[in-house]
Protein: MBL fold metallo-hydrolase
Organism: Parahaliea maris
Amino acid sequence: MRNPIRLLLSAALAVSLPLSAQEDAELVVKVSPLPAPLHLLQGRGGNVVASVGEDGVLIIDDDYTNYAPVYAETLKGLAAAGEATPRFVLNTHWHFDHTGGNAFWGERGAVIVAHDNVYQRMSTRQEMKAMNRVVEPSPRPALPVVTYADSLALRFNGTTIEAQYYPSGHTDGDSVVYFVEQNVVHMGDHFFKDRFPFVDLGSGGSVGGYLNNVRAVLKRIDTNTVVVPGHGDLATRADLRSYVGMLEATIGLVNDRLDDGASVDEIVAEGLGNKWDSWGAGFIDEAKWIRTIAASR
């Protein structure tokens, strides 16, 4: 019997839904199949998972603000004759590439759900020093209406959706979302597939906590789990295990060199070794990852 995960990975389908002539033609959402009633939607920001069925629509994260109308058109296509406006939007964390569509959906009646700390950060002015950016408080329709301290469960479209809080990882408000019956997990930014991660130390994240959290998810899932990263293509448990291996090796190397008395600049000059060259091709390059590890000690 063929592995169901590989079937899904090989069946990824790019769907470009037309917008009006006034809309930017470059704003495209890619749709890939997941076990019914789930779909992976990918624009420019964080990955979105949509549950579309007889109870309506629920989405995990909602990309950048300017992509919201494109997601609206995409969901109309997936919902067919049904209601396409999400009843629920669940945010994995507060960053604007995952919550940018909140106001759009909140104004249309969607219930925004997130961890307590997501509300706290979205409702106050945030300085993202790592990106040299100040984020003003979000408008009221964008703010979570339902919040939780540890975990939350939703029964929707015939499946159990569990949002589990993992502390001091990517930020201080991250949740990983488990679709129990479908054996699908959306990891938010606790997983950048085949890339060094962005750990937002200014938002309460930590490198040690990040590694512990990813290890915890790895223990919970099995070889048939479909793993949705915050950024990147659909993955397997083996891909996540490779990610943990990278984290363990690179964090250990930097900490060992620091313990030996090396400066951060010296470690940056030395690098992490050729094995990890390709992992620095994303938002976080090798030097940034080394400096993040050192700053998180």
